[in-house]
Amino acid sequence: MNTITILALSWQHLLIVGIIILIFFGGRKIPEMMRGLGSGIKEFKDAVKEDDPKKPEEPRSNSSTTP
């Protein structure tokens, strides 16, 4: 019985993929790409946290109605 496992990557496969990425993008571009990816993930988490329905809304204070 022969089964195919999707995304069954060994360390050798990951090493080859890493080398190919290094060849395509170069050593200088990879840190910039990772920084952009990290900031994108942070913005996504902030947006999800902002839309969280469990978080109670703060009461709005109208400064125009205070004496």
Automatic annotation (TrEMBL):
Gene3D superfamilies: 1.20.5.3310. It is found in: Cell membrane. One of its GO terms (cellular component) is TAT protein transport complex. Residues 46-60 have a biased composition (Basic and acidic residues). The chain crosses the membrane at residues 6-25. It is a single-pass membrane protein. Its main location: membrane. GO terms for molecular function: protein transmembrane transporter activity. Residues 46-67 are annotated as: Disordered. InterPro entries: TatA/B/E, TatA/E. One of its GO terms (biological process) is protein transport by the Tat complex. Signal peptide: none annotated. The keyword Signal does not apply. The keyword Disulfide bond does not apply. It comes from the Bacteria. Keywords: Cell membrane, Membrane, Protein transport, Translocation, Transmembrane, Transmembrane helix, Transport. It holds the Pfam family TatA_B_E. Part of the twin-arginine translocation (Tat) system that transports large folded proteins containing a characteristic twin-arginine motif in their signal peptide across membranes. TatA could form the protein-conducting channel of the Tat system. Forms a complex with TatC. Belongs to the TatA/E family. This is Sec-independent protein translocase protein TatA. The lineage of its organism: Bacteria, Pseudomonadati, Bacteroidota, Flavobacteriia, Flavobacteriales. The gene is tatA.
